[in-house]
C-alpha cells in the first residue's frame, strides 16, 4: 500500500469513526472502543503529516 492510499483510507476511516462517536453515548463500552481507534488513527495521520485540525470533530 502506498503512502497516499494509506492516507486516503485513514482520513476516510477517521471521518466515519467520528460520525459514529458523535451518535454514541460517551460512557458506553462501544464509545470507549471507538476512542481507542480514534487515537490510533490520529497517530497514523500525524505520522503522515496530515493536519487534522479541520476534520477533527471530536477534538479529544
Please characterize this protein's 3D structure.
The chain has helices at residues 3-23, 29-47. It is an all-alpha fold.
Topology diagram in text:
Layout: H1 3-23, H2 29-47
Specify the biggest β-sheet: none
Secondary-structure element sequence?
HH
- Structure summary, number of beta strands: 0
The average pLDDT score comes to 95
Helix content: 55-70%
Amino- and carboxy-terminal Cα gap:
29 Å
Total helical segments: 2
The geometry reads as elongated
Enumerate the spans where pLDDT stays under 50 for 5 or more consecutive residues: none
Report the portion of residues in β strands: under 5%
Roughly how many Å is the radius of gyration?
12 Å
Structural class: mainly alpha
Task: Give a brief rundown of this model.
The chain has 60 residues and is an all-alpha fold.
List keywords for this structure.
60 residues, mainly alpha
Amino acid at each position: 500500500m502506498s503512502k497516499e492510499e494509506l492516507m486516503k483510507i485513514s482520513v476516510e476511516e477517521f471521518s466515519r469513526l467520528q460520525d459514529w462517536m458523535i451518535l454514541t453515548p460517551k460512557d458506553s463500552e462501544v464509545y470507549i472502543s471507538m476512542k481507542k481507534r480514534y487515537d490510533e488513527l490520529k497517530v497514523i495521520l500525524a505520522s503522515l503529516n496530515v493536519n487534522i485540525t479541520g476534520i477533527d470533530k471530536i477534538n479529544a
